[in-house]
């Protein structure tokens, strides 16, 4: 394995994280939070220095393969999370190291699960750092790095593969640097549109910035203790729509930009995504309306927001869906598994994998009935290779294994079944709130440090889609000659 | 006319043979010396050994004086390049065989850019012929005129049919007024019938009728015409691909047997609705397992003629499925006709038919009548032609007179006249007018314009 290049890029990642800290530094200046200013300014300088030292020597060999890509992705995210937690501890607002790491990992992985009971008590600079981590984590630090670094060889696709979501990651234009730029361009553009719409809706500017970044990364950290409930119907509807937009495959927007709207609306995954969303929203609305009565459109709006929030794995809430009838809660649980589209900022198993599973079942059954039958699985009229198919199947097995092991670990804390199960579900799928004691109105502070550590790893595993973290932890990966 | 043919494969040879019979002077270019020599020794043609897409070779073949170049090698790229060079080197028309579906999808663009007079895709044409047979399951052969509005349908008269033992003039009441018996084949003899011709069971007859009449017609003569809902295809080549596409479009279930696994995967990708079986159709138990006894139609399209015949005969013995058999190479037509193999499809003949139609149209000056369609029936013994009647001096003796007044050639029948939207099944009192399209059936080959029907 090429340790040199990994060390070099990790150094760059640390420098970039230092650069990112400029944002809370400016915030603390604006709000005259001098303690925050001191902490973030020192952290920023520290990260620059560390980064510069680590990346001081350029590696002789710049070759780069799949293994380096995976290791790099896992390592970068772990390093970012640990270093990103320093300000929380240093400002004394989240004194426990485990809690601070949990909180910032939740931020970078766009989970939105918090150990804080009332985030509004935090300093503005800490609040913004939390929300900003969503925005960075959504598209990925390494993709950002790829957009910034001078054009490398074709191997940098391995980094992108390791960090981006979905069964088959490709480039949308020939140059990987260009691809990263386009992705970040679309991402930034959409975030700004959302920000402006929220400000038009009379949301305070600071809140609007935090909510816009939380929505864009499909993260879900709020500013107020009641998440999104206090912002009025207009802002809630805007956020509902934008959560959905950020949950869609970014390739869809690229096709729209290059005026291939016809191809864009033919994307099977986007169609499946919208269909699942629409059906579940209608079912939940009817369920709520029939069990609670009241204004139909009011219930529709609530159902639409919560469904959008959970499906895109954002985790904002305008209502405590833990209090909903069981049927609706079960549907929400199903959505937590499915998640949104690949190539978006969302988590979960992803709609495209679900579509492949369904087609795979159909194929298997068809081939059982006619033993010599051959049926290939296609997506968007393109054949899915056997390798991708195998990876997608294995993903589910791996996903289930991790979930079971995590549930067993969390179960040591002795909470009820719903809490234990949904805490793992909510972190592994990068959603945020679950059910029971980790429902939308509660938080994750109740867990023991062991559970918090397990859930932190789940968040990372979920964001990096399992494989990179596994490869990182395998001793074999680190042997010189393997 | 001076015609250059590039490529002496199955299609090339058939084509050269027929063009030669029609009296054209043909030069054949091929890289394969043995194939070339065989053709030259059998036919009265000139052979040039070399690469057909080379300018030098084309010049040697006389491209500057040629009226037409037909490129029918087994490589699309060579065909297109030959046509392109011929167009630049001489001033002839060009015809190319293009059979790769990828090229054929954009054929109108290619035709325009390379200024091709015609692009033929034998596999696709064969598939469309099979499709027509599936749509009219009782027919053994179906040919269409007037853009599909008129059909010439051939079938065998079954035993105890109401047609059995009647004269042609007596059966019009049974068959309906809009249909006309054009050809009768009995014991290898082909007759253009008159009113007195007797019909017997086991005769193969061709009847012309408008599209809308078909289902009523079979009802009246008491032949079951049950629609086909499921089709089994042996072999997954290009014909199968085009055929399955058409069948799926009209809602028919398709099952394809193909031995090559990679080809199976391609088919499955392109035809998600079809059932693709990776196995050899010449495997009794596999056919049985996949329900050969219940299928409505079985189509043998493997690359081996012998295998196709065997398969069709086997399926005939176990089921009542409609059978269609592809035969590409074998020439024992008389014997094959007596085997229970259903309808026989021969792609090389379909290609030759299309090209000869074009050649005959080319022979006439632009102001005379054009051959719109040409089909050969009953083992190529009879031709059915469709003419456009144009306003020109040659047609003066023809138009405005009733058919009884016209002195028509013997063994020739005017079967159908379409005038505007109306389709006329002509009697002696009808006339041919300018602007009509006329379908003529004749055992007298080589008609190239409508005035040729007169003595």
Write the layout of secondary structure elements.
The complex is a heterodimer of chains A (482) and B (455).
Chain A: H1 3-20, H2 22-30, H3 34-54, H4 66-84, H5 86-90, H6 97-108, H7 124-139, H8 141-148, H9 156-163, H10 176-200, H11 205-216, H12 232-247, H13 250-257, H14 261-265, H15 268-292, H16 296-311, H17 326-338, H18 351-369, E1 373-374, E2 378-379, E3 382-383, H19 386-411, H20 417-428, H21 449-463, H22 467-473, H23 475-478
Antiparallel strand pairs in A: 2-3
Chain B: E1 2-6, H1 10-21, E2 25-30, H2 33-42, E3 46-49, H3 55-60, E4 68-71, H4 76-89, E5 93-97, H5 101-105, H6 107-113, E6 118-120, H7 122-135, E7 141-145, E8 150-156, H8 172-175, E9 180-186, E10 189-191, E11 204-210, H9 214-220, E12 230-234, H10 238-249, E13 253-258, H11 261-270, E14 275-278, H12 284-289, E15 297-300, H13 305-318, E16 322-326, H14 333-337, E17 343-345, H15 347-363, E18 370-377, E19 382-388, E20 412-419, E21 422-424, E22 437-442
Parallel strand pairs in B: 1-2, 1-4, 2-3, 4-5, 5-6, 12-13, 12-15, 13-14, 15-16, 16-17
Antiparallel strand pairs in B: 7-8, 8-11, 9-10, 9-11, 18-19, 19-22, 20-21, 20-22
How would you summarize this macromolecular structure in one to three sentences?
By secondary structure, chain A is mainly alpha-helical.
Structure description:
Chain A has helices spanning 3-20, 22-30, 34-54, 66-84, 86-90, 97-108, 124-139, 141-148, 156-163, 176-200, 205-216, 232-247, 250-257, 261-265, 268-292, 296-311, 326-338, 351-369, 386-411, 417-428, 449-463, 467-473, 475-478, and strands spanning 373-374, 378-379, 382-383. Chain A has 482 residues and is mostly helical. Chain A has a two-stranded antiparallel sheet. The N and C termini of chain A lie close together (8 Å). Chain B has 455 residues and is an alpha/beta fold. Chain B has 4 domains: 2-120, NAD(P)-binding Rossmann-like Domain (Rossmann fold, 3-Layer(aba) Sandwich); 126-220, Alpha-Beta Plaits (2-Layer Sandwich), CATH 3.30.70.1450; 230-345, NAD(P)-binding Rossmann-like Domain (Rossmann fold), CATH 3.40.50.720; 355-453, Alpha-Beta Plaits (2-Layer Sandwich). Helices cover 31% and strands 25% of the residues of chain B. Chain B is built from 15 helices and 22 strands. In chain B, helix 1 runs parallel beside helix 15 (347-363), helix 7 packs across helix 10 and helix 7 packs across helix 15. The mean pLDDT of chain B is 85. The A-B interface holds A 366, 370-376, 378, 383 and B 261, 264-265, 267-269, 272, 275-279, 286, 289-290. Strand 1 of chain A pairs antiparallel with strand 14 (275-278) of chain B, so a sheet runs across the interface.
